[in-house]
Amino acid sequence: TEVILDGRVFGKPDDADAAATMLRRLSGRSHEVLTAVAVVTAGREARAEALTRVTVEPLTEDAIARYLASDEWRGKAGAYAIQGCFEAHIERLDGSYSGVMGLPLRETAMLLRQFEVLP
Fold this sequence. Notes:
It is a single chain. This protein is α+β, with helices and mostly antiparallel strands. It contains four helices and five strands. Strands 2-1-3-4-5 form a five-stranded antiparallel beta sheet. Helix 1 (16-26) crosses helix 2. The two termini are 27 Å apart. The mean pLDDT is 96.
């Protein structure tokens, strides 16, 4: 899963300062989240991607500080976890909610049906 803003990929921040910088850049803007999933067997492989556009409301410095104190940002691309308290700061989501979480369920199910794992 990658968070992309203005052509720049936001990975997982190393520390709270890096997370705050990412959140400030995302504040009041729309960005893309791209998540890929693959199924691989001995003789076959297939992959699918979910592209989601996410709009974050303008964040105050207090909101950023409160979010950083939650530690939810740790280990998260773009310094946020949509499935946690950061969801309260999402104005709009166009695409796959589960893809933003890190595993696009519809795309995963599609691949599993192709491999006849799911009916």
